[in-house]
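How it folds:
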Amino acid sequence: LRHVWFQHDGAPAHKTSSVKQDLVEEFGEQIIGYGGLQEWPPRSPDLTPMDFFLWGYLKQQMYATPPPTLQDLQRRITDACAYVTPVMLHRVQREVQARVQMCIGADGEKFIH
C-alpha cells in the first residue's frame, strides 16, 4: 500500500483511537482528511469517490430488479463489488483529479462539475 492514500471522511465510527491507530499503522502519513496531514473539505461528496461513484454504481447493479431475499441482496453486493474493474477505477481517479482542480479553481467554494 505504498502508493495508496486513505481518504478519511470523519464519520464518528472512524474517529476512535483504535481505528486511528490502525490507519496510521497501515497508511502512515498518507491519510487525507480527519487526523491526517492533508486537509480535505468537509461535506464534500463531489470529491469523494464512494459518494460520486460507488454508491450509485452499487445501487444500480443491486436494484435493477428487486432482490427477493436478503441473501440475494448480499450476493448482488458482493458480485457488484467484484465487477469493479481497474479501467473503472482509473476513470474514477481521473475524475477525482479533475474535481480537485475545479475545487482549487473555485477557492474551495462550491463548484459545478
Remarks:
- The CA atoms of residues 102 and 111 lie 7 Å apart.
- The radius of gyration is 16 Å.
